[in-house]
């Protein structure tokens, strides 16, 4: 995700119509601080949580509620590596991560792999994604690997700000098929934030694609990840959006039927509420322990927005039309779709 360094002076507008009844994050114990969580579960039931940090960090816990261990570095470097994504494909774990220069399009995505979550990751270096251009104006950040069991295709979702979220097909987890682009999402609101038009106008990033019950869901984070209500008007901070498609490549539409590239489509499923500020950096998984789909993310405390972000998760229920919503408990939805497949 990108941090914005400009200092903004804006009026804090409290909009009570934004108030929503979302449940609080489920309890978390141990070392819960994290930014851009990426979650996986090993064969023996241990949860692994990767996060943005120098070298990318990983911590473990016996349950989703913790207790989370102290973080360890995945790569022995002081380089700031961000927005990890972890997925099991072709008998290995694949870890994607980025290097990014704030407020520029000079970013890149690398991949590493390991036969097991507890063994060292071997770095394979940069993915060969062409840099953004006028035609496809993106920033190479926030990778998300998606395996479509239907057709056995692999996709890399990424981006972005500028023209937001794009997708490339892969021939294997290390190799993108150049010119297999799909444009998944674009927020056409300009500019994104006061004073920030120079960094690309459209605050959409952190894509995460998930298949459930035969449909494809694109989750992403909209808004500003990393400021506070001192500088970002309430409502413009991070929030979690969803769109849906019949195909992995789109077109995606929101709950109101609006196209998510051409019509600013996007349905908010979680935003600021109670003491939760700016939830985002999310992922979704079918959790075989809880027998439910869950949404996980990082969030800040409304009453102390400068504290590091915390790991949070909630159950996702599915309404009669097949749209996900954040809910108190698993709604008993059975394993219809197996969104995350180990392949
Ligand atoms: C990857 O991105 C970082 C951050 O912008 C940059 O410093 C580095 O030179 C890039 N690496 C390559 C090989 O482009
Ligand atoms: C699972 O495996 C990891 C890595 O080998 C180990 O640290 C952990 O203690 C194991 N957990 C259980 C419940 O066996
Ligand atoms: C698009 O951006 C505007 C301005 O930041 C925001 O109010 C709106 O919620 C965003 N829409 C989507 C679908 O993300």
Give structural notes.
It catalyses: Endohydrolysis of (1->5)-alpha-arabinofuranosidic linkages in (1->5)-arabinans. Its EC number is 3.2.1.99. Pathway: Glycan metabolism; L-arabinan degradation. Helices cover 0% and strands 40% of the residues. The protein has strands spanning 38-41, 47-51, 53-54, 57-61, 72-73, 80-89, 92-100, 107-114, 122-126, 144-148, 153-158, 165-172, 175-176, 182-185, 204-212, 215-222, 239-245, 267-270, 276-287, 292-301, 310-318, 324-327. Strand 1 (38-41) and strand 2 form a beta hairpin. It has one domain (16-327): 5 Propeller (Tachylectin-2, Chain A), CATH 2.115.10.20. It is mainly beta and 343 residues long. The strands form five sheets. It has a five-stranded antiparallel β-sheet, with no helix packed on it. It is globular and about 45 Å long. The site of one 2-acetamido-2-deoxy-beta-D-glucopyranose (NAG) has 11 residues, from loops. Residues 187, 189, 192, 203-204, 222-223, 236, 241, 264, 266 line the site of one 2-acetamido-2-deoxy-beta-D-glucopyranose.
- What top-tier CATH class fits best? Mainly Beta
Please state the second-level CATH architecture.
Answer: 5 Propeller
What bound compounds does this protein have? 2-acetamido-2-deoxy-beta-D-glucopyranose
Fraction of residues in H or I helices = under 10%
Outline: globular
List SSEs in N-to-C order: EEEEEEEEEEEEEEEEEEEEEE
Q: How are the strands ordered across the major sheet?
A: 3-6-7-8-9
Compute the separation of the termini in Å. 28 Å
Radius of gyration: 18 Å
Percent of residues in β-strands: 35-45%
CATH domain topology: Tachylectin-2, Chain A
Q: List low-pLDDT spans.
A: 2-19, 335-343
CATH 4th-level superfamily? Glycosyl hydrolase domain, family 43
Largest sheet: 5 strands, antiparallel
Number of separate structural domains: 1
């Amino acid at each position: 995700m990108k941090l914005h360094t400009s200092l903004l002076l804006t009026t804090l507008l409290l909009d009570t119509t934004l108030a929503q009844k979302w449940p609080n994050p489920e309890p978390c114990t141990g070392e819960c601080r994290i930014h851009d969580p990426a979650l996986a579960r090993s064969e023996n039931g241990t949860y692994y949580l990767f996060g943005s940090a120098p070298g990318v960090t990983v911590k473990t816990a016996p349950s989703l509620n913790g207790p989370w261990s102290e973080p360890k570095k995945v790569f022995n470097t002081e380089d700031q590596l961000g927005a990890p994504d972890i997925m099991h494909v072709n008998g290995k774990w694949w870890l994607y991560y980025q290097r990014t220069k704030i407020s520029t399009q000079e970013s890149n995505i690398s991949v590493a792999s390991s036969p097991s979550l507890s063994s060292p990751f071997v770095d394979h270096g940069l993915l060969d994604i062409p840099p953004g251009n006028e035609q496809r104006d993106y920033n190479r950040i926030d990778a998300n690997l998606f395996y479509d069991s239907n057709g056995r295709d692999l996709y890399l979702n990424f981006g972005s700000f500028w023209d937001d979220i794009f997708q490339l097909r892969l021939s294997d987890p290390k190799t993108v098929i150049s010119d297999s682009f799909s444009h998944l999402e674009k927020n056409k609101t300009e500019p994104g934030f006061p004073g920030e038009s120079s960094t690309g106008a459209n605050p959409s990033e952190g894509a995460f694609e998930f298949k459930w019950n035969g449909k494809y869901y694109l989750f992403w984070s909209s808004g500003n990840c990393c400021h506070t209500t001192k500088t970002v008007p309430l409502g413009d901070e991070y929030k979690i959006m969803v769109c849906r498609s019949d195909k992995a490549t789109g077109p995606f539409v929101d709950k109101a039927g609006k196209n998510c590239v051409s019509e600013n489509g996007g349905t908010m499923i979680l935003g600021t509420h109670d003491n939760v500020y700016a939830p985002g950096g999310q992922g979704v998984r079918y959790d075989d322990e809880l027998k439910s789909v869950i949404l996980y993310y990082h969030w800040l405390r409304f009453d102390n927005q400068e504290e590091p972000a915390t790991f949070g998760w909630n159950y996702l229920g599915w309404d009669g039309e097949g749209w996900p919503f954040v809910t108190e408990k698993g709604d008993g939805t059975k394993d219809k779709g197996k969104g995350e497949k180990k392949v």
